[in-house]
# Entry
Amino acid sequence: MRRPELRESLLEALGDVDRLVLLGDVLELRHGPMRDAMEAARPVFEDLGRALQGGELVLVAGNHDHALVEPWLSRRGEESDPPPLGLEQLLEPELVSAAYARIAGWAAPARVRVAYPGLWLREDVYATHGHYLDCHLTVPTLERLTVGAMTRLLGRPAQAFRSVADYEAVGAPLFAWRDAVARDAQTGAALNGLATVGAWRALGGSARDGEAGSGRSVRARPSRGAGAGAARRASLRAAVRRRLLVAGFPLAVVALNRAGVGPLSADISAQELRRAGLRAMDEVSVRLGLGEAYVMFGHTHRAGPLPGDDLSEWRGREGARLINAGSWTYSSIFLGGSPSESPYWPGACVVVHDEGEPRVMRLLQDRTREQIRSPRLGAARG
# Structure
């Protein structure tokens, strides 16, 4: 979204749209100070406001920009008898945070509102960021491990969750801590999520059936000259570390399960990433009583269902119809060489009409990998 020539596809699609809902992680607040993220985001919101031509822009907070809604949550906690957190709190920006109020000013003349943790787009369509699914994920991501540790610490097992307040009780303290670390300086890979991606690559996560990864092998050129020996030694050390990680990973998962942090699985294939995310989001849908609604989310970035997907994977055990809006993030490890190779290709969205099934659209399918490549080597979020 930092690239004007790429976000033009989204702006053009807004010509006949009454309302645009941004499903969280709109700002990247884990990589560094909010002021940097706000500065980068201002042109985007100004463009969106003009493109909406007086329509409505709804902002939903996710786990990476939870700090935007935290001031409202904190004030709510100071009330003597606050009402229970529901599935939809629809709020005016100035009542939530100064940051949201600034964004609303940039997006004029569009009307801006804030929804948390989600909102009903129709009686049968609920939209949320989806970060609550980390509480039920079986893939041992950093988010899943920290949430698991917090549930143990608080004595609030995810198996007993029945409300929005249950999910907030374990997630909000973790988000607040990470936001505080990033408040004044750039963060390292362990906190901003890049270490998790690197570990997935080292453990064998790869492109299969077009699900993720580059789909290409890379062979290093033979080293020559004075630095050849040092390069070979460095390569050998890296190979040894990788083998140790691969050998120890299943044992670590067993230990975590015995410690009560799980249930976790040592299967981190691309297919299992998809299935585990869908199972976890369905678990949230069941525990929050969403029934047979269309449940839209984006947290895992895997757009769908797409042509060729097994639709049974996207249907919940109580009838929820899951839809992932994808993302606008460039992450090289999850991309194939062309749009058809990866459901993680940036530029996805979902169109919701007054009736009928919501439809996934992919607005950057006419671009090549070279055209969407991040000028920051693909490490930064969209």
The chain has one domain: 4-215+253-372. The first helix runs from residue 4 to 13.
